Fold:
Amino acid sequence: MTQQQRHRSESIVSDGEFPFTAADFAKIAALVHGECGIVLHEGKASLVYSRLTKRLRVIGLRSFRDYCHLIESSEGFAERQAMIAAMTTNVTRFFREPHHFDHFKSTILPGLVADARAGKRVRLWSAGCSSGEEPYSLAVLLLNAMPDIAERDVLVLATDIDPNMVASGREGIYSASQLSNLPAELRARWTVGSSKSTQSRIAPAARALVRFNELNLLGNWPMKGSFRAIFCRNVMIYFDEPTQERIWTRFAQCLEPGGTLFIGHSERIGAGNGLYDLVAQTTYRLKRCR
Structure:
């Protein structure tokens, strides 16, 4: 048996185009975890294979063994970034988990508007913004409440580890199906499109409120100042518990006293954390004495 035949016989994905062994998977899983904190259990082997075979075709490699050699090498930085982008799941929509936006609108927005009109600095953060639907949902709520917001010191920071998603969000162009969850009144007021186009773009006033940047939550956070609210939803489910706890604590250090953290529907902050109070469904307020 040749080395290539042995490698294929050890494959953990049957009938695959490329040999993909348990050793290959272990190397990829370890690198992904080290780079961005995402935990890939063995049950994710088929998902990893299906997403990364596209990368092997693009760069012209013949096996996952060769791919592992590349991403572990000093020349593999760009491909490691491409791999992380391929591993992230970008499921989002306008006003996803609407109870969060209802809470924001009724509980946070009035005080935010009052403070902005009084000349105070106001910042919101969409951490894990994907293609931008979440931060633009916040932007149109802000504009509806404060039409003169351009004269105020208000900004939504939108960050994601995937540079392709950051670029897409910055463009702010969405199909009719992507815009279907944006209420018709808001869609008419805050998107721009022609009758001949199947796509529309977020209006300039809303785009001007949002700043998109790449950010790895496991890396350095260069932001200065604190946030009135942070939306980080359905991101922590990919991390192990120690990583989650570290990020919950880092968010607390970035929030204003009494600021609000919105997390995903299947995520929880453990009672032992001690930094937050649960105030609504998957909605946490930072304790004022910290």
